[in-house]
Design brief:
9 strands; 316 residues; single chain; alpha/beta
């Protein structure tokens, strides 16, 4: 089937699904109350609600899903914009990150980490609370927090970096009589493609990228947790930790229930009327947006069907 035909099929499927389910509302509208914090307000993550509070408040920002440019539960630009607006809001007194993420790319994790550090230049505090999982890129972002709390059933850690992965299919193709050739200039331009075996030089190139990102990650953990770098690297072999193990190793400050974490945050402030307001990203899956995605697939089928991302370091 030609790629353009695939795009037409996708568009047809999208239209049928939209018609059958009446997708004209946010599919995640019911999710805004799913943050298990029981805080006094829930804004549903809408940016327009920022700065509208008449009382001093802590913003609870939900960071869920894979940390990337955008996904079903995560949107990088929404997060960065929220942080900037909160920094400028005098009624906002701090941020509590609710993190439930397996990780994501180094680029987006570091960008969020830096944005939170910029927020702190306003004199406001950042806290982190770990939900089911706060691993790798999720832990990376949490390093911007002044204090980190975890649920006793949290899985965290996984401090490490993957620079790339590849499948070498050359031997299999040779056995079944298929030969694929990629014409390229530059001996390493086609590296990690499935139709060419990686050379030792190419493996070293990718290893150097992973090592550089790993050094950046571990240095951030060292500064955040006030821990010697040798100790961090001892812990940062990619393994995961329970909340209890993380506390014993200095990766989190305390293992608390949600209510206990809320009280711990409030204890740092002298506001009698301090409230918590929750924000989360909600993807707007309207019929129009789905149709546009289908049209985009027809116009640019390679982008729609080739989702490989090269040199996007993964911290998960």
């Amino acid at each position: 089937m030609k790629e353009s035909s695939k795009g037409l099929v996708i568009l047809l499927i999208v239209v049928l699904i939209a018609a059958g389910t009446g997708i004209m509302k946010k599919v995640s509208a019911a999710k805004s109350s799913s943050i298990p914090f029981g805080f006094s307000e829930n804004s549903g993550g809408k940016l327009s609600s920022l700065g509208n509070s008449s009382k001093p408040y802590i913003a609870v920002i939900d960071i869920s899903g894979v940390i990337q440019e955008k996904g079903q539960d995560y949107n990088q630009q929404w997060l960065l914009s929220s942080i900037r607006k909160l920094k400028a809001d005098d009624k906002n007194k701090g941020i509590l990150l609710f993190i439930n993420s397996p990780g994501g790319t180094v680029y987006h994790s570091d960008e969020a980490y830096l944005a939170l550090n910029d927020y702190k230049t306003s004199g406001k505090n950042v806290y982190a609370y770990f939900g089911t999982m706060a691993a790798s890129g999720g832990y990376y972002i949490a390093c911007a927090a002044d204090k980190i709390y975890a649920n006793r059933n949290t899985i965290t850690g996984s401090i490490g970096v993957i620079s790339a992965s590849t499948i070498d299919a050359t031997e299999l193709m040779s056995k079944i009589g298929i030969k694929s050739t990629t014409i390229h200039a530059g001996k390493n331009k086609n590296m990690l493609n499935w139709n060419e075996s990686p050379t030792e030089e190419q493996l070293q190139i990718m290893q150097s990228l992973a090592d550089e990102a790993y050094d950046q990650f571990t240095q951030i953990v060292s500064r955040s947790r006030k821990m010697k770098i040798d100790k961090v690297r001892e812990l940062a072999d990619g393994r995961i930790y329970s909340a209890k193990q993380a506390k014993e190793n200095g990766l989190v400050d305390d293992v608390l229930t949600i209510e206990e974490a809320k009280e711990a945050v409030k204890a740092d402030y002298n506001f009698d009327s301090l409230i918590f307001r929750s924000y989360r990203y909600e993807k707007n899956e309207s019929l129009r947006s789905l149709l546009l995605e289908g049209i985009s697939a027809i116009k640019n089928p390679r982008a729609a069907f080739n989702q490989g991302t090269y040199l996007s370091y993964i911290v998960n």
